[in-house]
Design brief:
Elements lengths: L2 H10 L9 H13 L15 H8 L1 H10 L10 H6 L4 H19 L4 H20 L4 E9 L5 E8 L30 H11 L10 E3 L16 H7 L2 H16 L8 H9 L10 H11 L8 H18 L21
Parallel strand pairs: 1-3
Antiparallel strand pairs: 1-2
Helix pairs in contact: 2-3, 6-7, 10-11, 10-12, 10-13, 12-13
């Protein structure tokens, strides 16, 4: 399944809530329908730029929604701006969403459930836009010369990598750029990039780097499909990524904004990989997230996932992390390959 096909599937998995503000819902759908397989987060080519399409189709409706409900977007002017600065995106949407819900309850001009579902729709849509990867994006390619030194040149075509040829599963819901899909280590390419930057090579830190024969999805321990580490851990991948998705919803149920991506990986890793077998509660989390009986953003759904996560931590005897902690110190339990 291609990244674009997975985007279409995610649209069918209800990015847009049926209770979302109608104008926002229509704008999000128009934006989704305008996306093409070769679109990217770059703003270099306007016809293939996701932020440009968001600014055209969604941001005017968002600005009108903010004006109608008296909730200005302090410090940012639209969703297109946030997907370009995705490190602060979740926090900004969360804080603005709290104002939207509070104003709806105070003025009564909009039902609180519509306010909640509108904010959720924007958050889910923004997160998925940030994870969208084009088949053609600006990259740097590293090539090793006969003298052993590396040279780098710019390109727009993602090279075909033998080790990345097998399909990426639907369970990988998050932007994984630079991190192994099966542990908390950097990918082979990311590790190489860090080492060459430290060595003083002319590498652009914010542009993806591709090196022939190095994996962009897995670390050195997991890069070989025939390796023991890959075979051992790949069957558990779907449970780990379901836990990361559930952790977002569990924290939102308590009025806390989601942890950043690295923290989500660290605090959920120990519930899956070090265990002798998959815990029943972890299986329950995966089954619920994969086929939710009600939308994941609903209050009842979030409360259910919170209960399952607490049960998983009890079964794993993991006391290193409190789901409701505002400043968590995640425990990273990483096995050696």
């Amino acid at each position: 399944m291609t990244r674009f096909e997975s985007f279409e599937t995610e649209k069918r998995r209800h990015i847009v809530s049926e209770h979302c503000d109608p104008a926002i819902a229509q704008a999000v759908v128009r934006c989704i329908d305008s996306f093409k397989p070769n679109d990217s987060l770059s703003i270099g080519v306007r016809s293939r730029s996701i932020p440009t399409k968001i600014a055209k189709h969604l941001d005017p409706a968002l600005a009108d929604f903010a004006r109608r409900n008296g909730v200005p977007m302090t410090g940012w002017n639209g969703l297109a701006e946030l997907v370009l600065d995705h490190e602060s995106m979740d926090f900004r949407i969360h804080m603005w969403g709290r104002k939207v819900i509070a104003r709806a309850e105070l003025n009564g001009n909009m039902h609180w459930s519509q306010a909640t579902h509108t904010v959720d729709t924007l958050r889910y849509f923004a997160q998925f836009c940030c994870s969208f990867r084009s088949t053609r994006i600006p990259i740097q390619v590293a090539e090793k010369g006969k003298d052993g030194k590396f040279t780098y040149h710019d390109s727009e075509q993602r090279p075909r990598m033998r080790k990345d040829a097998y399909p990426k599963p639907m369970e990988v819901w998050f932007d994984q750029e630079g991190w192994c899909e099966l542990c908390c280590r950097p990918t082979e390419t990311e590790q190489f990039k860090r080492e060459r930057i430290d060595a003083g090579d002319d590498i652009k830190p914010d542009v993806p780097l591709y090196v022939r024969s190095l994996s962009t999805r897995f670390c050195a321990d997991h890069a070989s499909i025939a390796g023991r580490s890959y075979k051992r851990d790949v069957v558990r991948r779907k449970y780990w990524h379901a836990l990361m998705r559930a952790l977002i919803e569990a924290r939102l149920s308590q009025g806390l904004y989601p942890l950043d991506f690295e923290e989500r990986r660290a605090v959920t890793y120990g519930l899956v990989f070090p265990q002798k077998s998959i815990l029943p509660s972890v299986k329950a989390v995966h089954d619920y997230v994969a086929n939710p009986p009600i939308r994941l953003g609903e209050a009842a759904s979030r409360a259910h996932l919170l209960g399952l996560l607490k049960q998983a931590m009890a079964e794993a005897k993991d006391t290193s992390f409190d789901i409701s902690a505002s400043s968590p110190t995640p425990h990273m339990d990483i096995r050696n390959g």
